[in-house]
């Protein structure tokens, strides 16, 4: 652990671990399989990144979130740590290069999306790699009891057989007891395994639910009462834009964010909010994952979340600095019907999903037995119009196909322009001599991006490259395309369109590998999760934080004292106590007058402030009065 602390300080600048990071790292270094449940903002990545630096070999990190993988890889590189990621939508050459680097000791961290695990190219390299650790992020995805089940996660147990001595660390921010047990079973944990659990209670967050007939007006009230940075979540892209405009017209500095915006625009909006140039980010749930802004004071949900797991994660983006913060749900009765309808539509009938699948195959002109591992740009609106579908229904059908391991659908896929010199130094020099017209351009490439182009894919900016080479942007891109066709470089222009990757070869829709019994069990599970949300917002008896803790299997705990339910109970208790004191005071003064000091001594209240309040109210109501010698009596 001394080495772990040294690495933590050298690379991350922290002098100590947060509990239970040190215990988790210690058990991993001892080679034990480990399940860690840490809330949003609990520092999960440190738990595998530090031991990954200590242990010999490459740490394989499995994650379903491409944007999060990219962010973590960039952050590791900034710290001088060798890391790359492979996921759907990348070229064969790029994947091949990164796997070779991992095989030959050129990487400390390799992030992998789960659908890549069963590909031949990965399996052949993986079994010969020196692997230090398997880190499974968003581990609830392996469980059918989880809210975001991914069948491709089940491949992890298969690859464990190829490296049986490598420990596994499974990480999640939100998993019910059933999901936790399922994670341990599906990942084939070896005894003695360890489980670490940080309480789901957030002492600094006040969870509030407000039922209202005018959510926009109530939002304004909340924003006026709670100063500081805020996130406002809403369900649709259009609504995020409308709500941001509404807030701006009422004097609040608000931005809107959703997956339909170009990546450059999203980056600008995100940076402006992080730098406090704008106070409020109005967003769909596309915003927030991987963003570490500690001073968010308020998270408001304008629509009911689909499940408590997602809500806890999104609400948990408030108050990461430990200071007082608020998580508020605003709803009306119609919202409950909307949520129930949305849940029903998110579970389409099998026959409809089969129709969408067949249409997809025809749309991309994929022959029977073909298509496995292929990536395609996908325009949801254009596809829906061509085949006379409603786009929102197609979206749910795609998610169902993804849930059953048929394809992956990334609606906010973005990849910058990438370049890699495909030949070695000798071959490159020979080419420059033989093809003098490309010599100057290649020299500019090497001057701008260095020899690293020979060993890995590098992000490039065509406009900057064109200016350096003193050519137009079109000429620059033509040169890159020409060099790519000649196999001197591999040039991949940027992509910013949704992507579909097929994980199975095409079959007749009726033969898709879908278990109807599991399909129906999944439908029932999601409906139960939806009902848990409805119960959470409608109940007025139990502390909101306790409801959340009980949902995640944490049965012990005391009321938070700061949610709306707890505050209402305190207010009622205070009113009852004041009323009781008033009755006692009136009874005593009905038989005699006395000074306030003597009266207080006779009443002997537990709380002198309550006694003073009772006297004040009775005087205001003209129930009692002071006489000429300042004794209290009935009026």
Q: What does this molecule look like?
A:
The model has no long low-confidence stretch (mean pLDDT 91). It is elongated, with a radius of gyration of 30 Å. It is α/β, with parallel strands linked by helices. It has five domains: 2-197, Rossmann fold (3-Layer(aba) Sandwich), CATH 3.40.50.300; 205-331 and 527-551, Rossmann fold (3-Layer(aba) Sandwich), CATH 3.40.50.300; 341-414 and 497-514, Arc Repressor Mutant, subunit A (Orthogonal Bundle), CATH 1.10.10.10; 418-492; 564-634, Arc Repressor Mutant, subunit A (Orthogonal Bundle), CATH 1.10.10. The chain has a seven-stranded parallel β-sheet, with helices on both faces. It has a six-stranded parallel β-sheet with strand order 8-13-12-9-11-10, sandwiched between helices. β10 (254-257), α11 and β11 (280-283) form a beta-alpha-beta unit.
Q: Nutshell version of this structure?
A:
The chain has 635 residues and is of the alpha/beta class.
